[in-house]
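Follow-up to my earlier ticket, as requested here are the two runs.
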Amino acid sequence: AYSNSNYQILAELVARQNRTTFPNHMQVSFFAPLGMRRTWVDAPLEQRPGTARAYVPASAEGEWREAPRLS
């Protein structure tokens, strides 16, 4: 089944295997060699204003905390 989470996990695995960030790996290994000068992976390290944040359960009492970023 389709899941955005699967793509996040895949990006994290690629980044760890290649010891770099996923956006950098894609740029160096795919986009630049193929001459794709206007293609990039948008993976900001900082939360952009006006965007949603992910939350995960923090306790059995129903408390929530912000989810950690994968990279």
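Run two:
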Amino acid sequence: IEHWNYGNEKVRISTSYNYLGLMCSNRLSWTKEIRTLLSKANKAIVGIKQIQYKFKNIPPIVLFKMFDTQI
């Protein structure tokens, strides 16, 4: 088990953290980041399909832009 100190204070060790929207792991693994992005992408696709079903004539470029803003 790792122990770190800063001066006289113990530093809490974390297995992962979010930095500027990117999930970072202490093992340099991208698994958690990929799962997070996949979940966001799936939610975005479901929402966009619902909008596309309701409004039939939306140009694909607009749908792609909607996807990009949600991820």
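The only thing I checked on run two: The chain is about 50% helix and 20% strand. Let me know what else you need.
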